[in-house]
Amino acid sequence: LEPSHKWRRVLLKVSGEALAGDQTQNIDPKITMSIAREVASVTRLGIEVAIVVGGGNIFRGSSWAGCSGLDRSSADHIGMLATVMNAIFLQATMESIGIPTRVQTAFRMSEVAEPYIRRRAIRHLEKGRVVIFAAGTGNPFFTTDTAAALRCAEKVLLKATNVDGVYDDNPRRNPNACLLDSVSYHDVISRDLSVMDMTAITLCQENDIPVVVFNLGKPGNISKAITGEAVGTLIGG
Ligand code: UDP
């Protein structure tokens, strides 16, 4: 990655789990505030920021499907609603420190947020507003990583999560697993490095979207990733 201001417009994916921090509550307001502050600092540099939020801190469809007769589609609809909760929380936090922010949802909830309209989202970004995309792709059986790849603004996906990046093996199973500076899409897929689901990673590969995976919990990381400083792991060709 080249230093400083490499990206004019970025898509930041904030995973739900990272929003929870080590709180017992679903959302840690200290984390949403630190995201807001870091995003504010880069929007001041003129970089346009769009965000896709996950929902795993509140509800993950795949974990609930099958419980008490809950079918997968219904569970995933609940999961997508969870992302809307996170989006509204994040929007309120951003606006409390003066960042104009719009939420767009992949299915209509017009009393709460705008529907997703690509051209309108771009217009908001051009006007210096942050756009938060909620409700994933709007379809069950997908993830918000896939939504992030689909919405990817200017060909870079920055995935803020609760691990430092991509390891060469599962660090929970293998204590000698090493953090990688960079890795190819092919290796992520063939070695099943489980940083994103297959649909999301193959979509990035097919469209040459570089992905930077980094830890949201470390102060400064969001602005580093957005301004193109080396952080976490770069997944690319
Ligand atoms: N979800 C879905 N379709 C999508 C995106 C998300 O059905 O396009 C549902 C799914 O149930 C998922 C939940 O929303 O478990 C939360 O999203 P995700 O797991 O991607 O959040 P994250 O892992 O980023 O916290």
UniProtKB/TrEMBL annotation:
<protein>
    <recommendedName>
        <fullName>UMP kinase</fullName>
    </recommendedName>
</protein>
<comment type="similarity">
    <text>Belongs to the UMP kinase family.</text>
</comment>
<feature type="domain" description="Aspartate/glutamate/uridylate kinase">
    <location>
        <begin position="9"/>
        <end position="215"/>
    </location>
</feature>
